[in-house]
Amino acid sequence: MAQLFTKDTQAIFWNNNTTAIQRMLDYDYTIQRKTPSVAAIVAPTSGSKFEKFFWGADEIMIPLYRNTAEAKAAHPQADVLLNFASFRTAYDVTMEALNIGGFNTIMITAEGIPERLARGMNATARAKNVTVIGPATVGAIAPGAFKIANIGGTIENIISSKLHRAGSCGLVTRSGGLFNELSNIIALNADGIAEGVAIGGDRFVGSVFIDNLLRMEENPEVKYMLLLGEVGGTEEYKVIEAIKSGKITKPIIAWCIGTIAKYYDSGVQFGHAGASANAEAETAEAKNKAMAQAGIFVPESFNDLPKKIAEVYSDLKAKGVISDIVEPQINIVPKVRKSKQFICTISDDRGDEATYAGFPISSLATPDTGKGIGDVVSLLWFKKQYPKWATEFIETVIKTVADHGPAVSGAHNAKVTARAGKSVVEALVTGLLTIGPRFGGAIDGAAKYFKHADDNKLTPAEFLNYMKNEGVPIPGIGHRIKSLKNPDLRVEGLKKFANEYFPATPLLDYALTVEQLTTSKKENLILNVDGTIGILMVDMWRALGYSEEEINEFIESGTLNAFFIVGRSIGFIGHVLDEKRLAMPMYRHPMDDILYDVKMAEKI
Amino acid sequence: MAQKAIREYDAKSILAKHWDKYFPNFTYTYETVLVQNGSELKEVAKEKTWLKEKALVAKPDMLFGKRGKNGLVLFKDAKPGDVSLEKAAKWIDEKSSSKQAVYFSFDGDIPTGEPKVDMLTHFIVEPFAPHAQEEEYYISATCVGDDDMLYMSAEGGMEVEEGWDEKVTEVAFKITDTEDEIAARIKANIPADVADADKAAFAEFAIGFFKAYRELNFAYLEINPFVLQGNKIELLDMVAKLDDTAGFMMAEQWGNVEFPTSFGMEEKSPEVLAIEDADSKSGASLKLTILKPEARIWTMVAGGGASVVYADTIADLAGIDDLANYGEYSGGPTTSETKFYAETILDLMTRQKDAQGRNKVLIIGGAIANFTDVAKTFTGIIQAFENYADKMKEVGVKIYVRRGGPNYEKGLKDIKEAADRLGLWIDVYGPETHVTDIVRMAVEG
To answer: Is A188 exposed, middle or buried (0-12, 13-18, 19+ CB in 10 A)?
Structure first.
């Protein structure tokens, strides 16, 4: 892999660090990336499903997950993990990601991970060929393609330091603060950087100077490299070895900071934890000298570094190794942005014509479109185009539950309210407010309990026993008068439709084995219409490819109830209009139909 | 710094605490106490009666070695092994009553180099352990490069240090090596000179030792020498460092361990202690080392890397004698933290005028910040200017500012306006000026 990142690289961001993520998205917008560089966020303690971010002046939503495994499963293309966990948990997060696999690069920001853990983590990653950037780093950047978190600073600085498009220098530093500074120096004295990595300040970091320089040697965009080392350690000597053995042929400019350290004993800690010389060879001066001898361009001092960069760059330019850069188009991130109060993901009325999940209303409304109310439901409720058999099933359900006569409590309430002189909408909602666990709720209950029994592989007998222990009658089982011999024809219709058009009906098949057992106890304990609808809805969603979690969520959020509400509204409105037409007077319940049993209140 | 030295007493206490886990087939009496003076020793003896019953050895426990050659190990009164509690207490009082000179390097028995002079404040006292020279062994472990190293020798004491290459067996281990691989390699590399009768016991002890080193997050662990008598172990002398970044998960295992400053280190000034205290309470980083308080160039630099670059450049262009301090603030300190940090430095630099009558120089430097809000941190510095403007004018301070990053334009404008308003000499520069170029300007100006 010659390039660390491309314009398609996406990351999973561990920890919902909204400022850093927004910086990444502002960068993406500026350089006109097509997809956000953050595909998902792992937020272990968050209850939300997404976080809103600005994308230019607009907003987008990035999904949140409770753990890395779920995020990776949902976004397999995201091969970078940005580990922003604290020093206490950063090791565990990294090791988990290495076990899950599929990550090419893991960046770790925490400073002060226990050394033994850091060493183990780095060795494991190396064995799996995963590039670790950090710990204790601000990250890395491939200008014009992908930027990690806060590296490069503000968007203004990024543009003035030419970090928004690829230049020709490969930059490797230990320090994150000086990384920015060097990017700026390189922009002022040359044409910017092609790829840059701050390897991190802790004593044990994953990828070291030589790892990054060898990759840059292979990267055709990189024409020369700049290495900023530090007092302490011997990593710079590996670079010298690579030059001597011919593994690195591109020009390198280098400087080791910390020449001051020689004046003081080891009691003074200069800079990072890794910055402490244990031997003469580890001093900044010895390393600068050795690098100069190996043919690396080493300035007189850090203050002379800009001059050295200009020298090397103009030489390569004169030789034609580096050519002129055509400055790319960029988007400008607006200075003032307002977060939206509401979010809509189902319909849009901003264009010429309002749409349902992307479909203009006219493309669904008239008969010649071949679309029915089932299609509209599938678009507005589920944001998906369901196949014909599913939309027809939805319509069948709506038609089946539209009314059940005036005596059921919901219809009765609607009628009583209408007779009190209230409007259609007032009378309708009175009826709707009756819908709940006892009225219409059997659809929800049947789906929930039968699915639970099927998921847990309960035999019909075990299921009956389970419900007995729960102390509830099985929802969806039992009818006032119908039995196996005298079947409910609505149920027969639904079953026939499912048999003919559903790819499979595993939950219905299971429910029928339960029915065999219940009807052997009592004839009228049949699978009733509510039960059949609830169970077949689960079978429909399974056949459409929804996961069990998604189906459980539909059940939990009351989606099944919603089918009943839509269908039964038709009937309620019928009853209300009927009352209006009949002009029936105010209803008063006959007193002889009430048992009065009122006692004198006791004093306490 | 992640690796911190601990006292010999604490090293022994940690091993003793986990002895049965790592050395189940060996015994160690763990008779050792740490005291600061003679009367404390006598007080401890009321509870630890072995102090009265056994002949004793006493020595300072202050992170330095070569105590024998410095004449700081008490093991004889008239003859070896006759030191009483009374004698030990008297000796400790004597050695701790005035400053002692300690040499860190010797040529044979002749000290070389300059000694460090300081008070002796902590002493370790243990029973005198009679043993034969052949029973002394050496073992240590540390990390070199990416590997763990185990060093073993059939000879202990001074002789190991003086004949390291011939006498010590070195074995390297990868961090990913398994317990079984480690044990097998240790067994295969027991020094040939170890008495045959002791080889198996030596190997078992070494395996336990190396496991303790790894699992208890020691950065360095040395016993020189230890005495092996059948299944009885004596730890005659120990040196240890802990990886203090592991502290959060080792609280139970390490117990109440202390990280003392080394002998002869200059006493930390109240200012430095105050900054250390503020640093420990902050999510940001605040560091200050005073190098030469009478020097004329003071730095207040943001960022670990940039602060080193400024120090390098001052040493190059002005010379090391002009550099008064080293320090850095980073990680987004609050306004009040920055104010406190700035006031500490302003207070130190305005205590006396330059001996040669020159201006003093304050370098407020920094690279281009990634996320620190420059205007916010400068607000703290401006507040400090307001409190110290008079003193600064009295000693004559020229201020050079260079900074970039979030909100830097406002920060530079604010600090320039404030200095002008207060009548302070100031020059400000942004990212268009090379980071350390203000040092050149200050030196030339």
So the answer is: middle
Among A180, A204, A275, select the one facing B370 at the smallest CB separation.
A180
As a whole number of angstroms, the distance between CA A114 and CA B244 comes to 8
Compute the distance between CA of residue A90 and CA of residue B249 in angstroms, rounded to an integer. Answer: 13
User: Residue B341 maps to which CATH number?
Assistant: 3.40.50.261
Report the pLDDT value the prediction gives residue B346, as an integer from 0 to 100. 96
Q: How confident is the model at residue A265 (pLDDT cuts 50, 70, 90)?
A: low
Q: Which of B368, B374, B433, B435 to mutate to test the interface with A (most CBs of A within 10 A)?
A: B368
pLDDT at position A342 over 90: no
Residues of B in contact with A272 (CB under 8 A): 304-305
Chain B: give the shortest CA distance to residue A139, in Å: 11
Q: What is the mean pLDDT of residues A398-410?
A: 95
Q: Which residue has the tokens 């479109």?
A: A369
CATH class of A409-582: mainly alpha
Tell me whether the CATH fold assigned to A11-318 matches the one assigned to A409-582.
Answer: no
Statement: the pTM of the whole predicted model exceeds 0.90: no
If you measure CA to CA, which chain B residue comes closest to A203?
B2
Is residue B1 pLDDT above 60, yes or no? no
- The whole-angstrom separation of Cα B203 and Cα B185 is 10
- CATH class of the domain defined by A11-318: alpha beta
User: How many domains are contained in chain B?
Assistant: 1
End-to-end CA distance of chain A: 84
Q: Flag if A269 and B1 touch (Cβ within 8 Å).
A: yes
Q: Binning pLDDT at 50, 70 and 90, where does residue A449 land?
A: very high
Q: Which of B175, B305, B313 sits opposite A175 (nearest CB)?
A: B305
Does a structural domain hold residue B373? yes
Does residue A584 come out as left (phi exceeding 0), alpha (psi in the -120 to 50 range) or beta? beta
> Is position B421 within any domain?
yes
Distance of residue B348 Cα from the nearest chain A Cα, in angstroms: 19
In this structure, what are the phi and psi dihedrals at residue A332, rounded to the nearest 5 degrees? Answer: -105, 125
Q: State the DSSP string of B29-54.
A: ----EEESSHHHHHHHHTT-THHHHS
DSSP structure string for B54-68: S-EEEEE-SS---TT
Hey, which residues of A are catalytic here?
Answer: 272
**Cβ-based neighbour number of residue B53 at 10 Å:** 11
pLDDT tens-digit map of A186-206: 999 999 999 999 999 888 999
pLDDT given for residue A268 in this prediction: 62
pLDDT higher than threshold 60 for residue A267: no
Query: What DSSP state is assigned to residue B84?
Result: -
- A301-321 pLDDT, tens digit each: 998 999 999 999 999 999 999
Report the number of secondary-structure helices (H) and strands (E) in chain A.
Answer: 22, 16
Any domain includes B246: no
Asked whether residue B266 carries a pLDDT value surpassing 80, the answer given is no
**pLDDT digits over B195-216, tens only?**
999 999 999 999 999 999 999 9
Containing domain of residue B353, as a range?
270-444
Which chain A positions have a beta carbon within 8 Å of B375's beta carbon? Answer: none
Where along chain A do its domains lie?
11-318, 358-400, 409-582
Residue B215 lies in a domain: no
Look over chain B and give the mean of its residue pLDDT values, rounded to a whole number. 93
What pLDDT, in 10s, does the model give residues B346-396? Answer: 999 999 999 999 999 999 999 998 888 899 999 999 999 999 999 999 999
Backbone angles phi, psi at A93, to 5 degrees: -65, -45
Contact indicator for A237, A227 with CB cutoff of 8 Å: no
CA distance A213 to chain B (A): 20
